[in-house]
Fold Bactericidal permeability-increasing protein.
Amino acid sequence: MALTIALLLATCLMMGPSVEAEVRPGFEARISQSGLNYLRDAGLEILKEEIKHLSIPDISGKAHVSVVGNIYYTISNMRINSFAIPSATLTTQSGVGLVLRASGITLSLSGNWHYSNHGFIHISDSGTFDASLSGASLAVTLRIGKDQAGRPTVSSASSDCSFNAGSVHVKLHGGASWLYNLFSGSISNSIKSSLNKQTCSMIIKEVNTDLQKQFSKLKTQAPIDQYAVIDYSLVTAPQFSGHVDTAHKGEVFPRDTPHKEAPYTVPVIPPDPDVSRHVFLWVTDYLFQTAAYVYYEAGKFEFNVTQDKMPPGKYSLNTSSFLVESLLPNVSKKYPNLLMQVNANATAPPVINIGEDNVNVSLKADLDFFVTLPNKTLVYLFTLNSTISCSTLLSSDGMSLKWMTDSLRIVVALKRSAIGKIQMKPISEAVHALTSFFLIPWINEEGRKGFPLPTSPNIKLEKTVINWLYNLFSGSISNSIKSSLNKQV
């Protein structure tokens, strides 16, 4: 059970404050006690399924039976038929990690028995048995830290685990079972002694080898697309004080080029005592700024607008069209019935700020206008400075952070011209319509893809509520965290 719940917890740990961080986190996360309770319940449900397939080693022993004398017995092919843990808690221990306690554990199993007497007259017999365990209790502490790669670590010492098998009752069937039930108490004691000795040893081994191995394989980065990767490695060890707090790098960097720090300052995430929901995320605009920087360096904010990219009948970039004739009459006369091209190039990375109720994005770009000659040569006309800004609303589907916008604000000014003076007001209106047509669908398409939240296919967050603060937003999840976990994670 400890292993199962810890595996669920491992995924949540990679979602999320620490006061001694050498690196200021780009985002923080919290799992409240109610979130831990959910993980406990989810772990129990998974355990009920897993324990049906648990392989139980055979047990051999020796007992003395009146009339028969000393016998040697083996119980084998044991199968668990029922299992219940009516009471369990998963709590934090400050400076250490998590403590799992379970009591009132009941279990029933069945299997085969065989005995032999190696005296003067060899006697042997076999049959089946039913056994029940009740009133068992377990307590195990998981010591959780951080390795140099920013992954969580986990360990347990022998002093961190205690198990009491409670009472064990065995009933033998078949053969001369009426006689052999006289030594069923010896078998019961053997099973109880074996459980008391082996349970904690097994749990500690699973924690220190199997579970730690799984932790060491946890990914601290998630690809967004072919250009960018998000880093959500831990910058400090998780903190435990009635809830679990984690601090993460929260930076986006290029996927296939050497990693270099982006030229931005990470804002301070203010303390927040709220523990009213399962899971909390505090995300600074540093994460978005670094993403914008990566995409700018990759040339993702460069667009070439040509007629073949326009919808039929919507806009015409032909120099003889009514729009061009009215806006640029000299161009229409000098280059009749030719196509035009507009090249948009960002001159700096976008500026992204989280406001009171949305994310504000501003981009400065040059818009270069050309005429395309029949031989495909571009004839330069003029360049506009532009500042494009929009507000986006955030949402989450439980696996990623998404956004959308429905309007843009564009301010343009003439930067240089090869065709003399230009009437800027009608040009500005046309550029606004053209830019909105291209940029809004692109922004929303990228928003539908979203940023991956640091979860896994085993964990899906539901009923997300987003709250806005200056330079950051917080998201919280209540009531529902869908999870599914196989033995291999």
About this structure: Confidence is low (pLDDT under 50) at residues 16-21, 479-489.
